[in-house]
Amino acid sequence: MKIITRDIPPRSAWALEQAGVHPLLARLYAARGVLSRAELDDGLALLLPPDTLRGTREAAVLLADAIRDDKRLCVVADYDCDGATACAVAIRGLRLLGAKHATYLVPDRVTDGYGLTPPIAQRVADSGADMLITVDNGIASVDGVAAAKARGLSVLVTDHHLPGTELPAADVMVNPNQPGCDFESKSIAGVGVMFYVLLALRSELRNRGVFDKTQQPKLDTLLPLVALGTVADVVRLDANNRRLVAQGLRRIRAGAMPAGVAALFKAAGRNVAIATTFDFGFALGPRINAAGRLADMTLGIECLLTDDAGRADELARMLDGINRERRDIEGGMRDQALRLAESMFDDTRQPPAAISVFGADFHEGVVGIVASRIKERFHRPTFVFAASAADGKEHELKGSGRSIPGFHLRDALDLVAKRHPGVLLRFGGHAMAAGCTVARDQFPVFEKALAQVAQEWLDAATLTRRLDTDGPLAPEYLRVDLVDTLHREVWGQGFAPPTFSEEVEVVSQRLVGEKHLALKLRHQGKPVDGIWFGHTEPLPPRVVIAYRLDADEWQGVRRVRFLVEGAEV
Predict the structure, then answer these.
(1) What percent of the chain clears pLDDT 70, i.e. is strictly above it?
(2) Read out DSSP for 444-490?
């Protein structure tokens, strides 16, 4: 591992500090490209205008007409947290804006696969719906949209994924990544796209005289769900996404949130009064995702839709139990996948440029998480495959991949498909995460083909794990109140949480729980505790570490603690 200190533009840091930003935060923000205090303003008025997102005006007219004509609307969701929150935002928002018949359908990961397929379009038509609305999917569903149109449904696609070479023939498409869209926030999540559609719909209804600004429904009640889905989907937190997340966090901390969100905080043992992006990404998000991985995402969506606190608690406890089961399954799969990956190392004990593993007893709902763990361990683009559990599809392998900076996973799959026609039955995704389906007997071809692309695209520097940090931390900042200040800010993908680095003295070290390294350190002459989760190898007496700040409580006293992220040894 190579620990790198981010550049901190001195003029930007000085300007922020002069504008009243805390000196430590000024340094951190400047290192992340913030030039002025105005960029830190999270006011709703500064959100990008809805009409700059291509398709929102047309979507608003389509939906306003449907509401006027009392049409039946059916939302087709995705089975991850972004899809679940987008569905809840759609249903809640449409009902707030006057839709009397708004229902949803969520595909089953195993039997339906991803996206709007012709069989799902048939089920929507059979339900009596007049309009089909996709959330967090649909941009690649050419056949599914065609099937829906053939059955007389009008179709609105809302998505944020990258389009393929052919676009579906929907009535309207809203996607910042579709050709011709100039929306600045290309990283907006699926739930954010749906929220923008609702903002445009409210504006259209206001123009039609349905209500005025004083009487219009308050869509800001949906922001806790928008914030949760945005962080859980690990999209880049550009300025617009940070504003959406900050607004959602503000409402949650004030106790203003759907009953299901409050219940999920309770089930996870997290405190809503000090809610953070960490809670979204590592506590609430995984519990919702677990339903789509192992059971039925309907449980997650219902939890987010109910206004009954008792029902919300019941559903949140169920989701918590499913998540515990997911962790158990993941542990066994991870160990087996690590052994498979290590068997691919060359004579120098180096992994190949890309890793693809398949286990006959792997669970397809957990392959993405395991791929992420393998990628983190070896710093290589990684795909993990499981046999499809769908009837008649036993010969197919379902794979989920995670990548490293510098390797666009979906583009790599596209190149594999062109070089080896027929190997990939289906594929899609983003730069850092993607999915695909291959025939079981074609897995060796895929494995070699992906490794070949990685070998061509990646050099030694890219294949070396690097950890970007904010450099040394002045000892006067080792204060619990500053830890709390840092935790309240919006951090995440593309706007990394503060990580510091410097040489420390290791006074003592011991294993706790057989898999974590507990440390007594001396930082610039001052003692401080530290812990390195998931690490068991001892450290030398003096070592350069990268660490995040945390506050540990013991016998009612809170103290600063270092969470070690890596070390140069």
Answers:
(1) 100
(2) HHHHHHHHHHHHHH--HHHHS-EEEE-----GGG--HHHHHHHHHS-
CA separation for the pair 21, 33 (Å, rounded): 15
Q: CA nearest 129: which of 102, 157, 109?
A: 102
Extended beta strands in 118-182, E state: 131-135, 154-158, 172-174
Q: Residue 95 carries which side chain, given as an amino acid letter?
A: R
Helix H or strand E encompassing 511: strand 500-512
What three-state secondary structure class fits 42?
coil
- Name beta bridge partners: 73: 102, 131
| Helix ranges, 297-422 (H) | 298-305, 309-342, 367-378, 409-419
Of 76, 80, 77, the residue nearest 290 (C-alpha): 80
pTM, two decimal places? 0.93
What is the distance in angstroms between the CA of the first residue and the CA of the last residue of the chain?
9
pLDDT tens-digit readout, 239-281:
999 999 999 999 999 999 999 999 999 999 999 999 999 999 9
Smallest CA-to-CA distance from 430 within 157, 191, 140 is with 140
CA angle 519, 520, 521 (to 5 degrees): 105
Which residue in this structure is represented by tokens 């693809």? Answer: 356
For residue 467, count CB atoms less than 10 angstroms from its CB and return exposed for 0-12, middle for 13-18, buried for 19 or more.
middle
pLDDT digit string, tens, across residues 210-228: 999 999 999 999 999 999 9
Q: How many residues does the chain have?
A: 569
